[in-house]
């Protein structure tokens, strides 16, 4: 099963603590830009792959690690000429939060990736070997039905996250030496959009604020992200709305907080994206939470 098929099974939402996949395929795979409700780690093993995340392009080398925070837009560009091998781990943030302590937040690597706007960790030979050992044990336990394999698998994923957090915290970022390409203005615009989802965000408004010709902006934004500017803003607003609904915010105020002018247009857009009305989405979240608490 390839990653595209996996995405169709659990599009955007993860009920389990985490999911582990070791995939290898050689074929023409064209992924659309997409996002998840959960955090995601990609350990690149082999192939020719460039990973696009929120306007930045990462040209991967073997054993590079990519951290994708929940709701970050991303897309791999894959050469069909070589086998693409990778390990993918989907992680439910609630699972990590249960194992946090006062001075240790296991989500730090994802938070730093988002704050630094840098999602890649490049390992040296010594650290590659350490990560390999943990991943090998995790891969064995992932397919095991032996006594307490679930407990051991959980402990291994925590061990992996502790080690990756240490490396990410210590990591000195230099995009110029790490095969990272991006248009600095587009990255700034993406950051501006994500910080102002409740404000007026028209193409004219943004192009004026950043002194960019609006036609050039639309072309460059689509080239860098895979989304039109309007579509990106719309989807980010809807993702923000979904996160507010999950927190228990009143739907009657959510649409205003997310920059929608009226409830009817918000409801139509929300239903088109999530296949549920905001109210039914809220009911589904509440029922899922009740099942978790049992």
Task: Name some characteristics of this structure.
single chain; 294 residues; alpha+beta; 5-stranded antiparallel β-sheet; 4-stranded antiparallel β-sheet; 50% helix
Task: Please outline the helices and strands.
Layout: H1 3-9, E1 18-25, E2 39-46, E3 49-53, E4 56-59, E5 65-68, E6 74-78, E7 84-91, H2 93-98, H3 108-116, E8 120-121, H4 125-142, H5 149-170, E9 180-182, H6 184-195, H7 203-209, H8 214-225, H9 229-246, H10 251-257, H11 263-274, H12 278-293
Antiparallel strand pairs: 1-7, 2-5, 2-7, 3-4, 3-6, 4-9, 5-8
Description:
Helix content is 50%, strand content 16%. It is built from 12 helices and 9 strands.
Report the mean per-residue pLDDT as an integer: 87
Give the helix level as a range of percent. Answer: 40-55%
H/I helix tally: 12
Describe the main β-sheet briefly: 5 strands, antiparallel
- Along the chain, the helix and strand elements come as HEEEEEEEHHEHHEHHHHHHH
Number of strands: 9
Strand order of the largest sheet: 1-7-2-5-8
Sheet/helix structural class: alpha+beta
Instruction: Work out the strand percent.
Output: 15-25%
Q: Which ranges are low-confidence, i.e. pLDDT below 50, for 5 or more consecutive residues?
A: 4-12
Termini separation comes to: 32 Å
Shape category: globular
């Amino acid at each position: 099963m390839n990653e595209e098929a996996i995405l169709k099974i659990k599009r955007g939402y993860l009920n389990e603590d985490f999911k582990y996949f070791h995939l290898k395929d050689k074929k023409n795979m064209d992924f659309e830009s997409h996002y998840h409700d959960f955090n995601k780690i990609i350990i690149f093993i082999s192939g020719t792959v460039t990973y696009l995340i929120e306007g930045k392009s990462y040209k991967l080398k073997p054993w590079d690690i990519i951290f994708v925070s929940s709701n970050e837009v991303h897309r791999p560009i894959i050469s069909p000429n070589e086998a693409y091998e990778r390990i993918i781990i989907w992680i439910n943030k609630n699972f990590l939060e249960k194992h946090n302590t006062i001075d240790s937040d296991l989500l730090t690597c994802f938070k730093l990736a988002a704050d630094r706007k840098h999602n890649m960790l490049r390992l040296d030979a010594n650290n590659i070997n350490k990560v390999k050992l943990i991943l090998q044990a995790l891969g064995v336990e992932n397919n095991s039905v032996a006594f307490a394999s679930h407990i051991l698998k959980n402990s291994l994923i925590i061990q992996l996250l502790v080690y990756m957090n240490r490396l990410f915290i210590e990591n000195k970022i230099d995009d110029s030496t790490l095969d990272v390409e991006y248009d600095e203005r587009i990255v700034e615009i993406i950051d501006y959009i994500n910080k102002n989802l409740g404000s007026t965000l028209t193409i004219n408004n943004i192009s004026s604020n950043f002194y960019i010709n609006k036609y050039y902006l639309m072309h460059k934004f689509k080239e860098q992200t895979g989304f039109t500017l309007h579509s990106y803003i719309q989807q980010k607003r809807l993702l923000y709305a979904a996160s507010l609904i999950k927190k228990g915010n009143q739907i009657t105020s959510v649409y205003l907080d997310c920059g929608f002018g009226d409830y009817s247009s918000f409801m139509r857009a929300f239903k088109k994206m999530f296949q549920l009305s905001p109210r039914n989405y809220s009911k589904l979240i509440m029922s899922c939470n009740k099942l978790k608490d049992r």
